[in-house]
User: Fold these one by one.
Assistant:
Number 1:
Amino acid sequence: LFETLELAPDVDLLILDLMLPGMSGYEVIEGLRAEARFARIPILVLSALGSTAARVRGLRDGADDYMTKPFLPEELVARARTLVTTRLLERRTREIEALGHIAQASLTAASVGVLLQRIVETVADVVEADAAAVLLIDEARGRLAARAAVGFGDDLDALSIPLPEGLGGRDRAA
């Protein structure tokens, strides 16, 4: 499951049974909540375990909702829609807050370099990226030059690439 999520990081909902081959659904929930990359994915447990103890444990371990089998398909769709909508609203709220931070930084930054650095940091935080950079075309040197970065170390020159190798070079040649 974790390998699959690595390949598809934009999962908006995970519907999970508790009885899985090789491990329990509770272990999956705990593992997802322990990983920062996956901690925000809504989890809807769909299980034959209908006891109060099973439901409480699932919710306590981090499930966002819990349904027992048998279930009405309409109820499953309604609950899934609610969880996905909540996830999308949370994501959109983070994006709007990021735009506010960037707007504030544009008013208070002492220089363009400081502004670009704040933008990179904000965007990396919102999209939960380990690294991000702003590269601008440097006509005089014929390269894409890093102007701000986070997660790459302090040597911005190491991120620069010749224009013919980058997308900027392709756009210029066209």
Number 2:
Amino acid sequence: GSERWLVAPYGDRNWVKNARAAGWVELRRGRRRERLVVDELRAEDAVSILREYYRLGRVTHSFFAVDLDSSLEAWLAEAPRHPVFRLGRTVEA
């Protein structure tokens, strides 16, 4: 869909803690910068995003203790290890 997500495959790193504290993140790609509001999802709400992230990106598979064939219960147990944020409206700098 049109929603954007930010996934932390490596867990609670400093940027995750900073995003939680500030309520926003700054994303950069080349010279383009965007400051966006973040809303962290509950584990139950993050599972579908995490499954899709896992399906699309093989590089981080080793950081997950589940796979695409794992049960919903296994994904629910795994979800807190990989924070997911919904990206929202732009924040003025």
